Amino acid sequence: MSFFLLFMLIFFIFSGVFGAAKVNEIQSISVMRGDSVTLHTDLTEVQRDDLILWTFGSKDVPTAEIHEQVIYMYDSKGRFRLEEKTGSLTIRNIRTEDSGLYELTVINSGRTSYKRFNVTVSDALEINVAYLPVPVISRDSSQCSSSSSSSNCSLVCSVVNVSHVTLSWYKGNSVLSSISVSDLSISLSLPLEVEYQDKNSYSCVINNPISNQTQHLDISKLCHTCSDSVTCCGSTEAVIRLVISALVGVATVTAVIYDIRS
């Protein structure tokens, strides 16, 4: 008779004699592919009469066992390690196929207890794309010099350091334009032109298969008519124009004073 079958036989005998087993809630553990994870028994030290069994999956496939302080490993991959002192199970170089339910059964001094662990193994790429920044909508700075008399407002939606995403402009629920990228850590920008008096709802959305972020456009805050060049244009050009006007004024006053003296 194998040690696993012997263990299960003893388990049923003890369960019938000493009553129902104590079952703990499932603990959820997330780990990146290639790392190591340890599932703890919370035992200070395994005693000689303790029976410990680790199983994996819905079919309770035996993974490791301690019987009379002797360790038995049923893992053919060689990546599983059972700590002799505590009975805790360590999985090294963990892979996505190692995701699932691990169950610990401990028979100690005639009492049976369980611990269950739901292990989720994620790829590093999945973790990177899970976070998305909120898009930033700004006015196109080139409009100041090239389109100051235009009836349209030029905007740009931008995001930085993103990968495997799609950036889109929406008018209501309809997509106006979009751009996708699969490279790592790249910046994206998507232009849009709207009329100053446009009352429609616009939004810029960045999304991937895991999550999305939305920034709504407030036309009244970003778009102003260009009747006033200082208001319409950037502060740099406005300052330059003021400086030129001041220099012209100084030159004119100087010329007048020179004519009076002469």
From TrEMBL:
<protein>
    <recommendedName>
        <fullName>Ig-like domain-containing protein</fullName>
    </recommendedName>
</protein>
<dbReference type="InterPro" id="IPR036179">
    <property type="entry name" value="Ig-like_dom_sf"/>
</dbReference>
<keyword id="KW-0472">Membrane</keyword>
<feature type="domain" description="Ig-like">
    <location>
        <begin position="135"/>
        <end position="220"/>
    </location>
</feature>
<dbReference type="InterPro" id="IPR013106">
    <property type="entry name" value="Ig_V-set"/>
</dbReference>
<feature type="transmembrane region" description="Helical">
    <location>
        <begin position="238"/>
        <end position="258"/>
    </location>
</feature>
<dbReference type="InterPro" id="IPR003599">
    <property type="entry name" value="Ig_sub"/>
</dbReference>
<keyword id="KW-1133">Transmembrane helix</keyword>
<dbReference type="InterPro" id="IPR007110">
    <property type="entry name" value="Ig-like_dom"/>
</dbReference>
<feature type="signal peptide">
    <location>
        <begin position="1"/>
        <end position="19"/>
    </location>
</feature>
<keyword id="KW-0812">Transmembrane</keyword>
<dbReference type="Pfam" id="PF07686">
    <property type="entry name" value="V-set"/>
</dbReference>
<dbReference type="InterPro" id="IPR013783">
    <property type="entry name" value="Ig-like_fold"/>
</dbReference>
<keyword id="KW-0732">Signal</keyword>
